[in-house]
# Entry
Amino acid sequence: MRFAVVGCGQISSFHTGAIASCPDAVLSGVYDALPGRAEELARRLGIAAFPTLEAIAGSPDVDAVCVCTPSGLHAPVALQMLAAGKHVLVEKPLALTESDCDRLIDAARQGGLRLGVISQLRFSLAVRQVKRAMDAGAIGRLVSADLYMKYHRSQSYYDSSAWRGTRAMDGGGALMNQGIHGVDLLQYLAGPVESIFARSATLARNIEVEDTISCVTSFKSGALGVIEAATSLHSGFPRRLELLGDAGTIVLEEDRIVHWDVDGHAIPELTLEGLHGSSDPMNISREGHERQIANFAAAILGREELLIDGAEGKKAVKLILSAYRSASLGLPVKL
# Structure
């Protein structure tokens, strides 16, 4: 599969590196709206720099496009590429509104194209082990599922790009930008959320969106839980997901199993990939992107099921937008 990458900011290196590592993929070229940025990356990688989005859309040398733009541009860029007959893999979030998510899903379906969204933590070996255990009912009835994402992002981080921390282009703060991977894992492992009650605030950063949010969740299974996300802290801590049942407990920190207390189930081989972006967004492993892009290419070729499609990507966006609506209304919101 011949890929193009749209957007040459920090996250693009995870995509270009993952494409290079995938035997089913090759990088045809890159594009960025900022003058010179794509050309510099193209020279470094020895590939082409596309002059416009239209050039990518019309290129016979591009089968699939990775969208790595600021979040507010995900939907329009992805729609343009789908309309041109390209398969599309979007960095998180899929889009900033449910209606835009639906437009992308419908466009892919109507065009017979693959649409995916980066949720690379699902490809972690530890997360796969936990998923198997949860599906087997290893912890019994789920009682509580709690997600803590207490991160640090400095004011200089937000000031480094004009789109960061804005409603129009970031779509939200600590929960939408930094927290969405954790929200995706929460629903993937604990099941769908039925309602959410949230309080949010901007306490430490000069931004339009929240830097601190706390939520109470009720799951369709009957379990209860909390979601806490922040970028306002002095120092950050690894993402922590606690899954507690009436027959066992499993705790994940980032992509590590740090607690396993499950009757009748041996402790799995613990996989310690070890990096986390609690204080530095670039301090994450590339392995998840590599596994996900390999799955995306194989799905296009008809060899594997696409594990994270547009419908899966929409789930986290919907929960986060429901939390924002709850915080705005001061009331619980049913999904």
Q: What stands out?
A: The radius of gyration is 20 Å. Residues 272-280 have pLDDT under 50 and may be disordered. Residues 310-329 form the longest helix (20 residues).
